[in-house]
Amino acid sequence: MSQSETKVITIFFRIAIYCNFIFLQNIKTSEIVKQLVAEENAGELQKCFGSRMEFGTAGLRAAMGAGISRMNDLTIIQTTQGFCRYLEKNFSDLKKRGVVIGFDARAHPSSGSSSKRFARLAATTFISQGIPVYLFSNITPTPFVPYTITHLKLSAGIMITASHNPKQDNGYKVYWENGAQIASPHDKGISQTIEENQEPWPQGWDDSLIDSSLLLHDPYVTINKDYFKDIQKHCFHRNINKETKLKFVHTSVHGVGHEFVQSAFKAFDFKPPLAVAEQKDPDPEFPTVKYPNPEEGKGVLTLSFALAEKEGAGIILANDPDADRLLVAEKQESGEWKVFSGNELGALLGWWIFTCWKNQNQDPTAIKDVYMLSSTVSSKILRAIALKEGFHFEETLTGFKWMGNRAKQLMDQEKTVLFAFEEAIGYMCSPVVLDKDGVSAAVITAEMSSWLATKNLSLSQQLKAVYDESILPLSTSLWH
């Protein structure tokens, strides 16, 4: 072994031994480090301790496991301590308003990590500083966190999720008081305060302390009731929904979406969608798919296709594991299935949501305050529809953090933001959530499909009409 190699190993052994002392709070993580040291596994030690995770506008996302480059009890505590101090600098009323914390169903048994464990540690950090925490008592879709912030007028929110990443990953997603994902310079400010608050605060590891705290609140029941009441504002064809002959298959891909999409269908007076039994319950192993990402297309929908064929269903709705994205497939007359791209469903939802708004607003001057948004990597179809219909379209940089923050700015100017989307199957169909929301998108897609069926039209046929009408001015549009 060369002198340089020996030096590298020595350095990482020192880091590992130091961090191992801290990780004694978590026996499983501690054992991982001890084993790496015993094996003199310099390569893996470097991966674990070579560099700290970088906090950005998307928060954190990394594999769960030991080390400062991984998601674990220590890095969650350090991150939350920094975030807490940053919020204290920015909100004089933080101890009055508080924060919300949600989590998905991810878990990593070998390191003792789970989204629920991380959420409780984050709550412990805030409560130890006298800050109220609205901690969901059970798994929730990611959109419930931004909804809760604005609905309860909180200072900020955290969602513990890695969305559709591989099973070993987890993440720490942060929202500001406006209900949108943080944008710069907040990321840099939070990153700095994380660096300044590395040593765990007293009692920071003991999440059992929060259970008896008067600062701990559970918003689960209230938010479930209020969210579904709010999205009913986008239900315009309740009688059609009740009577539709269309059958829908839904898969939550082993994530959190099942219960919430069932509730959304009930709120819109639909019969329950047919659930893919093998995938409806949360399972951090994601056993039936290679990757739990609906963007993979047909590979994720194998079981959904089988159920749809068996039950005679014509529409498949697939959420990613944290239910903020939606993939849609439709059976064609040929018997083949068409899986809609994010741009295609964005075109359909944009058309539908504007159509519904137009039918509800007969004042021709109202359109001057109507906006739709999409990101620069997405289709320009909304721009074409806007030019034809007379409403405003704006394009933002890539990511819902830009669309959510811009939507809030427009709403503060008393503008009406109807819809925003990104080609990565993310849709904001209601301004009550200033982020992508796969739950509301699923039920609104179902209503659109059911209405089209009364006109003997499929989603595919209507998509062609949307493209044709957006390019060629027609004297009569399909919705008149």
Automatic annotation (TrEMBL):
InterPro entries: A-D-PHexomutase_a/b/a-I, A-D-PHexomutase_a/b/a-I/II/III, A-D-PHexomutase_a/b/a-II, A-D-PHexomutase_a/b/a-III, A-D-PHexomutase_CS, Alpha-D-phosphohexomutase_SF
Matching SUPFAM superfamilies: Phosphoglucomutase, first 3 domains
Pfam families to which the protein is assigned, alphabetical: PGM_PMM_I, PGM_PMM_II, PGM_PMM_III
GO molecular function per UniProt: magnesium ion binding; phosphopentomutase activity
Cellular compartments per GO CC: cytoplasm; nucleus
Needed co-factor(s): Mg(2+)
Family in the record: Belongs to the phosphohexose mutase family.
Designated name of the protein: Phosphoglucomutase 2
Species lineage: Eukaryota, Metazoa, Chordata, Craniata, Vertebrata
Gene field: PGM2
